[in-house]
């Protein structure tokens, strides 16, 4: 189908949701110095805030991922955004550290659900030829949200009382969520999901409406009609998901692809949360950077991450999914070695920027691949499982790295630990390049057929 105004709206609506998730995830690093002083927290207690957040996203990814497959993408879009807004407001009025941790965990449930719903849906609407680029641009909303969180934090920390500044920062995310709830309500249900449920008339009506908008935009009617006919003939088999049926498929016929997505997610989450913890609790304090100036360094890193997102948007289409995936994760691993070799603030910040560039390129490529190799009936569930396993890396990294720093007294030991946690990413990407299949310019149905996974399994077994 040709590109239409509808696709542009989808790109914005999903990208903004991803940016809001990133805002909420990253703001803790910017304001932690103030929270630490207000509630007299140790580094270990501070890392608990990151771990509680990550555990909440783990649970939310699995639960809301299954619900998105069971009850539809649109309901979950709206439910997770409202849930996010509710507990984000509660976070603003936290009266002590325990209440803060509880409300952060509740907010994280919605963000985990967003990970599953957005990544499952982004490719289900986009034209095949633009899918890699548009999916990458949606996911590039993450560094945009991180940039916004750093900018807002820097402003409030330098213009408001410390006990008020962090509350205003979290409140900004709530305001944005309520604003974009209005935008998101116009997104229709995924036609692929409707076909999966046997609701053919509803699916055809949505596709017809999109085709008509393409015709109004100047595309010939024959092109629009042909696109709608091809869509109606995708051959999706009607199936109503149940939790145990989805689990059997994911850990049975699709275990290799689910394992690939999980290994990639583990690596990137360990790096993202590990380097966030190291910057906030180890590197910047070790270099005597004042708490009010910390958001400035996150601005540098998030600007580099945005460039990594743009690189991914270009390379997943120009190079193909497999090369972009491999080189993104390999670049990130090498960047950790760079920051390990640096002993000045400028050098460490440079290494941090390289890591942010590489890990954004890597995880965007990873999410694009993962969303294309899982079928519609278990796509959100499978992505939810991969996000959940990734969050295990994000839980382990802050606790492990802060303890390694406490034992050694220098950042070097913690950076070695981060390097070890990163290894599953480039390893899984290399295996997929060798034995996986390229999904560029394939429909989602062609890219996720079971036979492709079985072929990879047979090839891997033969090679071993």
Automatic annotation (TrEMBL):
Domain Major facilitator superfamily (MFS) profile: 10-440
UniProt main location, coarse: membrane
Topology relative to the membrane: Multi-pass membrane protein
Membrane is among the record's keywords: yes
Source organism superkingdom: Bacteria
Annotated InterPro entries: MFS_dom, MFS_sugar_transport-like, MFS_trans_sf
CDD domains: MFS_SV2_like
UniProt keyword list: Membrane, Transmembrane, Transmembrane helix
SUPFAM superfamilies referenced in this protein's UniProt entry, alphabetically: MFS general substrate transporter (SSF103473)
GO MF term list: carboxylic acid transmembrane transporter activity
GO cellular component: plasma membrane
Subcellular location: Membrane
Regions crossing the membrane: 43-64, 76-95, 101-125, 137-158, 164-183, 263-287, 299-319, 326-343, 349-369, 381-401, 413-435
Stated name of the protein: MFS transporter
Source organism per UniProt: Paraburkholderia panacisoli
């Amino acid at each position: 189908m040709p590109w239409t105004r509808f696709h542009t709206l989808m790109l914005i609506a999903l990208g903004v949701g991803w940016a809001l998730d990133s805002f909420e995830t990253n703001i803790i690093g910017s304001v932690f110095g103030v929270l630490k002083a207000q509630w007299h927290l140790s580094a270990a207690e501070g890392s608990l805030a990151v771990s509680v957040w990550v555990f909440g996203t783990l649970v939310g990814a699995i639960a809301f991922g299954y619900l998105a497959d069971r009850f539809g993408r649109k309901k979950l879009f709206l439910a997770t955004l409202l849930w996010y807004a509710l507990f984000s407001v509660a976070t603003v009025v936290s009266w002590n550290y325990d209440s803060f941790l509880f409300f952060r965990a509740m907010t994280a449930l919605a963000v985990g659900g967003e990970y599953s719903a957005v990544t499952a849906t982004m490719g289900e609407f986009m034209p095949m030829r633009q899918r890699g680029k548009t999916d990458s641009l949606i996911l590039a909303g993450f560094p945009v949200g991180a940039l916004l969180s750093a900018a807002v934090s820097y402003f409030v920390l330098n213009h408001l009382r410390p006990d008020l500044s962090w509350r205003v920062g979290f409140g900004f995310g709530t305001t944005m969520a309520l604003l974009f709830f209005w935008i998101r309500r116009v997104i229709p249900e995924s036609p692929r999901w409707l076909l999966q449920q046997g609701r053919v008339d509803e699916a055809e009506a949505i596709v017809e409406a999109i085709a008509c908008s393409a015709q109004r935009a100047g595309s010939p009617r024959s092109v629009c009609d042909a696109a709608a006919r091809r869509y109606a003939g995708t051959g999706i088999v009607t199936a109503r998901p149940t939790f145990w049926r989805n689990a059997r498929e994911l850990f049975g016929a699709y275990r290799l692809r689910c394992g690939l997505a999980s290994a990639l997610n583990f690596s990137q989450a360990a790096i993202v949360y590990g380097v966030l913890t190291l910057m906030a609790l180890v590197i910047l304090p070790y270099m005597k950077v004042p708490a009010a100036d910390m958001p400035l360094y996150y601005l540098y890193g998030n600007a580099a991450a945005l460039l990594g997102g743009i690189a991914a948007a270009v390379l997943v289409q120009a190079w193909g999914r497999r090369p972009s995936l491999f080189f993104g994760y390999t670049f990130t691993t090498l960047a950790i070695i760079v920051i390990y070799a640096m002993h000045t603030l400028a050098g460490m910040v440079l290494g941090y920027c390289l890591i942010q560039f590489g890990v954004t390129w890597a995880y965007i490529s990873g999410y694009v691949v993962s969303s294309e190799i899982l079928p519609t009936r278990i796509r959100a569930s499978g992505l939810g499982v991969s996000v959940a396993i990734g969050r295990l890396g994000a839980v382990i990294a802050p606790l492990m790295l802060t303890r390694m720093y406490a034992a050694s007294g220098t950042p070097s030991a913690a950076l070695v630990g981060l390097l070890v946690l990163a290894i599953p990413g480039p390893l899984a990407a290399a295996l997929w390049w060798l034995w996986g299949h390229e999904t560029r310019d394939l429909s989602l149905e062609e890219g996720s057929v079971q036979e492709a996974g079985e072929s990879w399994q047979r090839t891997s077994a033969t090679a071993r």
